[in-house]
Amino acid sequence: GAVVHWYKCDLRTQDNKALHLASEKAKEKGVPLIAMYIISPQDFEAHLTAPVRVDFILRNLQVLKEDLGKLDIPLHVETVEKRKAIPGRVLELLKEWDASHLFANTEYEVDELRREAKLVHSLLDNDISFEVTPDTCVVSPGELSSGTGKQYSVYSPWYRAWVAYVHSHPDVLDLFGPPSKNPPVARERFSQIFESTTIPSAPANKSITPEEKKRFKSLWPAGEHEAHSRLQRFCTERIKAYADNRNFPSETATSSLSAHYAAGTLSARTAIHTARSHNTSKSLNAGIQGIQTWISEVAWRDFYKHVLAHWPYVCMNKPFKPEYTNINWEYDDANFTAWCTGQTGYPIVDAAMRQLNHMGYMHNRCRMITASFLAKHLLIDWRMGEKYFMEHLIDGDFASNNGGWGFSASTGVDPQPYFRIFNPLLQSEKFDGAGTYIRKWVPELEGVEGKAVHDPYERGAGKVVEKRGYPRPVVVHKESRERCLARYKEGLGRE
Ligand code: FAD
């Protein structure tokens, strides 16, 4: 016999609920635990997984394989080309290993739920138990509802309920221990997996150049130990000042842990547990302000997963608010390309898009500025931006990305009202006052002094930056603002 843990977005040994349960089951039955990961190029394609993210997943698998190896747990990694074939292949493997139990953590996206539903039937027919357990959120979807029994669609009351829930169920912040070491027989019985499993390079549809590989490796070291040391460093060095500094993209003020939650090398539970242990209060909404604020940010991740689980149609290319379906978007290729490549002539927007293209990451304030700029200033369908982000983010997460875009385009849960339109110049002056972030990412503006860096053509630096090839603004703020207001109003009036 054997017990199997199926790894997905949970590439860690510590504080992994399904892995922990699988290990307990294996111990109880006196059989070895096997871990497995299926690489699905079609899922990467369908879910727009960024090449930088695929690369990160593969590098994390390498570390995971070594960590599990120390516990004599084999990690089987296999590529299955057709995603429809995955349930069938999983069943075959389980039979080959004579497995009686399969464990996995729940994923809430629609495709994943369908795949699991299909597998449940075939496993039942073969007398194999399949336990899918909620793990990714600190408070699982379905646990919180408003006084009238409804799912919250506004963050603040939801967050109050979330905090109250954690306070009244303190065990949700208890961490799950790592799996136990396998019995000695495992090495021999599964010698084939131990000896012949290698982590493949990226599938053809997600391959990257050697230069990118090197760059991503140095920007984003992989593995759960790296995630833990980042978390520790953040909690000892920066979390206290987080509330004051988190909105300034030139500062190293945030945790840079989002890539680790997306790969599952760190759990949100561990993050909050650790942050709380640095606070002067056990309560999540008391004590040091920076810690309270950071915990409330990590909770946004839970919030958007609850939204996705409750309103799965957001997974189907539909705005949360159906009345926003009728906005007449511009599909201007030139403007879209300018936005993607950081050539809009709005320095803060261009700096941010270039950061994304270079690092696979963008600061949160800049995600809001660039998303708003695409949807409102360029009036381009926000779903094109959502897709572009997903295709380039190392931390790409459907629920958070979709939620962030819905917020910025005013089509989602808890949106900013459509008539509140970010002024990119004011945002730039407020959050990158000295222009440090802009100059870092837009070398054409390196030598531009003072306030001109925010708007060089209007502030006397036009000649210099034109020579360096920096474009003029693709739209005029005031005009685009008026166009946006009129277009949203018109769209909302149309049934
Ligand atoms: P910190 O400031 O240290 O925050 C801690 C953690 O809180 C983050 O790691 C993240 O897990 C969570 N968090 C913070 N803000 C948000 C938020 N607004 N929504 C959800 N979770 C949040 N985050 C993703 O993880 N994946 C995405 O695909 C993604 N797409 C986004 C798209 C748009 C348009 C916007 C506006 C935001 C998006 N975010 C996304 C949220 C946020 O920008 C990132 O989580 C954050 O920038 C990551 O950096 P950090 O780890 O240093 O964050």
TrEMBL record:
Which superkingdom heads the taxonomic lineage of this protein's source? Eukaryota
Manner of cofactor binding, per the entry note: Binds 1 FAD per subunit.
Q: Where is the signal peptide?
A: none
Which residues belong to any copy of the Photolyase/cryptochrome alpha/beta domain? 1-138
Which residues does the annotation say bind FAD?
242, 254-258, 294, 297-304, 395-397
GO annotations of cellular component type = cytoplasm; nucleus
Q: Which UniProt keywords apply?
A: Chromophore, FAD, Flavoprotein, Lyase
Sites annotated Electron transfer via tryptophanyl radical:
W329, W382, W405
Per the record, the GO terms for biological process are:
circadian regulation of gene expression; entrainment of circadian clock by photoperiod; nucleobase-containing compound metabolic process; response to stress
User: What is the required cofactor set for this protein?
Assistant: (6R)-5,10-methylene-5,6,7,8-tetrahydrofolate; FAD
Annotated GO MF terms: deoxyribodipyrimidine photo-lyase activity; DNA binding; FAD binding
Family designation:
Belongs to the DNA photolyase class-1 family.
Spell out the protein name for this chain: Putative Deoxyribodipyrimidine photo-lyase
Which organism is this entry from?
Answer: Glarea lozoyensis (strain ATCC 74030 / MF5533)
Show which stretch of the intact protein is covered.
Answer: 105 to 599 of 601
